[in-house]
Write a structure and sequence with these properties.
The protein is α+β, with helices and mostly antiparallel strands. The protein has 4 helices and 5 strands; from the N terminus they run H-H-E-H-E-E-E-E-H. Helix 1 packs across helix 4 and helix 2 crosses helix 3.
Length: about 170
C-alpha cells in the first residue's frame, strides 16, 4: 500500500511539474498553467549542482528553522531516490503550522529557490519553487484540529528522472 501511495504522489508531482496542475480556479491568470511572469521555467537536468541529498538538506534546514520537526514516514522507492525527495513535517508539533509553512517557503526563496506558481484557496495552499533543475511542491492543506496535511515534495525535472518516473508508474500499474 505504501508503494501505491508513492506512485500516486509521484504521478501527481510529475503532472504538476509538467504543467498540467491547473487551468482555472483561484489561480487562473496567476501562473497556474505557466510560470509566473518574470520567473524562469523549470531548469533542465544538469543545469545546476543539486542532487537529492542537497535538496533534502535545504528543505530540512528551512523547515526546521521555521519551527517544524520532521515526521517519520514512508521512504521514496529506491529506484526514485535520486529523482525525488519527500519531507513531511509533524504539523501537530508546530505552534502555528501555517506560519511555519510560510517561513519554510520564505527561507527556500531566500536560499535561491524561485517561486513559479501559487494556488491559494481556502484551507489549501500549494506553491511551486524551482532551482537547478528541481521543483519543490510545497503544500499546506486543512487546518489544525482537523485533517492537516503539510508536505514538501521535490522532483528532478531532467529526462533521466522523467523516464524513471514513467517506468515506475508502468511497473506499478494496477
Amino acid at each position: 500500500m505504501r508503494k501505491v501511495k508513492w506512485v500516486a504522489a509521484a504521478a501527481g508531482v510529475v503532472l504538476l511539474v509538467a504543467g498540467c496542475g491547473s487551468e482555472g480556479g483561484a489561480d487562473k491568470g496567476k501562473g497556474g498553467g505557466a510560470p509566473v511572469s518574470g520567473t524562469a521555467a523549470p531548469a533542465v537536468q544538469g543545469a545546476g549542482t543539486l542532487d537529492a541529498a542537497a535538496v533534502k538538506k535545504e528543505i530540512a534546514d528551512a523547515a526546521t528553522a521555521a519551527g517544524f520537526t520532521e515526521k517519520s514516514g514512508d521512504d521514496v522507492p529506491a529506484t526514485l531516490r535520486s529523482c525525488m525527495v519527500s519531507w513531511s513535517p509533524d504539523g501537530k508539533k508546530a505552534a502555528d503550522s501555517k506560519q511555519s509553512f510560510d517561513g519554510t517557503v520564505a527561507a527556500l526563496v531566500k536560499g535561491g529557490w524561485k517561486e513559479t506558481r501559487t494556488s491559494d484557496r481556502p484551507m489549501s495552499v500549494i506553491k511551486s519553487l524551482d532551482k537547478s533543475g528541481w521543483t519543490v511542491k510545497a503544500s499546506h492543506q486543512g487546518k489544525a484540529g482537523s485533517l492537516l496535511i503539510i508536505s514538501f515534495i521535490a522532483v528532478d525535472n531532467g529526462p533521466t528522472c522523467a523516464k524513471a518516473f514513467q517506468e515506475d508508474l508502468t511497473k506499478n500499474k494496477q
